[in-house]
Specification:
Helices cover about 35% and strands about 15% of the residues. By secondary structure, it is α/β, with parallel strands linked by helices. It has two domains: about 140 residues, Aspartate Aminotransferase, domain 1 (Alpha-Beta Complex); about 230 residues, Aspartate Aminotransferase, domain 2. The strands form three sheets. A seven-stranded mixed β-sheet has the order 2-8-7-6-5-3-4, sandwiched between helices. Helix 7 links the parallel strand 5 and strand 6. Helix 2 runs antiparallel to helix 10 and helix 3 runs parallel beside helix 10. The radius of gyration is 20 Å and the shape is globular. The structure holds pyridoxal-5'-phosphate. The site of pyridoxal-5'-phosphate has 13 residues, from helix 4.
Length: about 375
C-alpha cells in the first residue's frame, strides 16, 4: 500500500524539537559522538546499522578466504607483502609504486594531507556538508576552515570555493561522490577549478565511493583513471566501502611521487596490518566480487528510490551506497525515532537540519527500515 508523505511522518509520532546553537561547527560535532565514536547502546549486535555507509554484504567470499588464511601470519610484521600490495595497487591503476601511499583507512591519508599542507597560517577550503575527517584534523592543527555550502543541486560550488582561495590556502578538499549527499560534481567543473588553482594549494579528491558512481553519470570520471599531470592533485580511495573491508582499515592515495613523499612523513610506520594487506591484494583481483557488489547496490538503491517515491519522498539523486532525503522535520527526531527501534541512521548535518542519510542495508534490513518509518 503506498503511503503519503504526510502519513509517513505523522506515523513517526515525534515532535518538532529543533536544537538551536549559535556556535555550531560546520559539520557534526565529533566530540559529541557521530562519525568517530561507536554509539554506546545496549544490545549492539542486534542493531541495524544504516549509519556508516558500509557494504552490508562484504567482504566477497574470495576475500573472506584470504582473511582466514592470513590469520596464521599475524605473529609477523608485514615484509614483502606490504610491497606486494603497493605493487598490486600501482598495477591496478597503471601508475608507479612511488605514486601510491597506503593508509590505515583513507582517513589516515586525509590526516597526512592535513598535516602536510595545513598550519595555523595555512587554511583549508571544503564543501559543506561533506565527510568530516579533513575538518576534524584541520581543527586539531589550528588551521582556519573555510566551509562553502554545496549549491542547490548538491554539487560543489567550485566558483564560490575558488573565490575563497588566497595565498594562505594550503589545501582544498573535494569529495566526489560527496558524503553525505551521494551527489556528483561534474569532472569538467573540477578541471576548470584546477586550472585556476593557485600553485601553492594542494587538492584532495576523495573518491571513496568511486565504484558506485562508475557509469552512473556521463559527467563523472575518476582522477585516477584519467589523471592530470599536476603534482598538487591527491586522489584518495578506500577498501572500506564496496570491498566490504571497513573493519580492516585500508585506504590509499595516488599522487605524484614527490607529493607522496611529503605525505609519507605523516603516516604511521608499519601501520598496515598483515591481514588487511592480504585481503587488499585479493580484493583487487576479484573483479567478479566487485561487479556483484556494484550490481547489488544498484538494485538496492533503485528499490530505495521506489519505496521513497511511493511515499512521496524526494531523495537526493544518489551515486553511492547511501541516500539522503528531506524528512520535513528535524533530523534529530527522525534519527532518534529509528534509534529507539534499533536502527542507526547517519548523524545530523547542521547545514541540512531536516535531511537524514540512510546507508543502504540488505533487503531485510531495508524492509525493517520502511516498516519502522511508516
Ligand atoms: C568520503 C569518505 N572518505 C573517506 C572515508 C573514510 O574511509 P576509511 O574507512 O578508508 O578511513 C569515508 C568514510 O565514511 C568517507 O565517507
Amino acid at each position: 500500500m503506498p503511503f503519503s508523505r504526510r502519513s509517513f511522518f505523522q506515523a513517526l509520532g515525534i515532535g518538532a524539537i529543533l536544537r538551536s546553537s549559535n556556535s555550531q561547527p560546520l559539520l557534526p560535532d565529533l566530540r559529541a559522538g557521530s562519525w568517530f565514536e561507536a554509539p554506546q547502546l545496549a544490545g549492539q549486535s542486534d542493531l541495524i546499522r544504516l549509519d556508516r555507509n558500509e557494504n552490508p554484504y562484504g567482504p566477497s567470499p574470495k576475500v573472506a578466504d584470504a582473511i582466514r588464511s592470513a590469520v596464521s601470519a599475524s605473529n609477523r610484521y608485514t615484509r614483502g607483502e606490504y610491497n606486494a600490495l603497493l605493487d598490486a595497487i600501482a598495477h591496478f591503476h597503471g601508475v608507479n609504486p612511488e605514486q601510491v601511499l597506503l593508509g590505515c583507512g583513507s582517513t589516515e591519508v586525509l590526516r597526512a594531507a592535513a598535516a602536510a599542507f595545513l598550519s595555523p597560517a595555512r587554511k583549508v577550503i571544503l564543501p559543506v556538508p561533506t565527510f568530516e575527517a579533513v575538518e576534524h584534523y584541520a581543527r586539531s592543527i589550528g588551521a582556519q576552515i573555510v566551509g562553502v555550502p554545496l549549491n542547490r543541486e548538491f554539487v560543489h560550488d567550485l566558483e564560490s570555493m575558488h573565490a575563497r582561495i588566497d595565498s594562505s590556502t594550503g589545501l582544498v578538499y573535494i569529495c566526489n561522490p560527496n558524503n553525505p549527499t551521494a551527489s556528483l560534481t561534474p569532472r569538467k567543473q573540477i578541471e576548470t577549478f584546477l586550472g585556476k588553482l593557485r600553485a601553492s594549494a594542494y587538492i584532495v579528491i576523495d573518491e571513496a565511493y568511486h565504484q558506485y558512481a562508475g557509469e552512473s553519470s556521463a559527467t563523472y570520471s575518476s582522477f585516477i583513471d584519467r589523471p592530470l599531470a599536476d603534482d598538487r592533485v591527491i586522489v584518495t580511495r578506500t577498501f572500506s566501502k564496496v570491498y566490504g573491508l571497513a573493519g580492516l582499515r585500508l585506504g590509499y592515495a595516488i599522487a605524484a611521487p614527490k607529493t607522496i613523499q611529503q605525505l609519507r612523513k605523516y603516516v604511521t610506520l608499519d601501520g598496515i596490518n598483515a591481514i588487511a594487506v592480504r585481503a587488499g591484494i585479493v580484493a583487487l583481483q576479484d573483479a567478479d566480487g566487485l561487479g556483484q557488489f556494484v550490481k547489488q547496490n544498484e538494485n538496492d538503491r533503485q528499490e530505495f528510490i521506489n519505496q521513497a517515491f511511493a511515499r512521496m519522498l524526494k531523495p537526493v539523486d544518489s551515486h553511492a551506497n547511501f541516500v539522503m532525503f528531506d524528512t520535513l522535520r528535524p533530523a534529530d527526531d527522525v534519527i532518534q525515532h529509528f534509534r529507539n527501534h534499533g536502527i542507526l541512521l547517519g548523524p545530523r548535518f547542521p547545514s541540512m537540519t531536516n535531511h537524514v542519510r540512510v546507508s543502504l542495508g540488505t533487503p531485510a534490513e531495508m524492509a525493517e527500515f520502511w516498516r519502522v518509518g511508516t
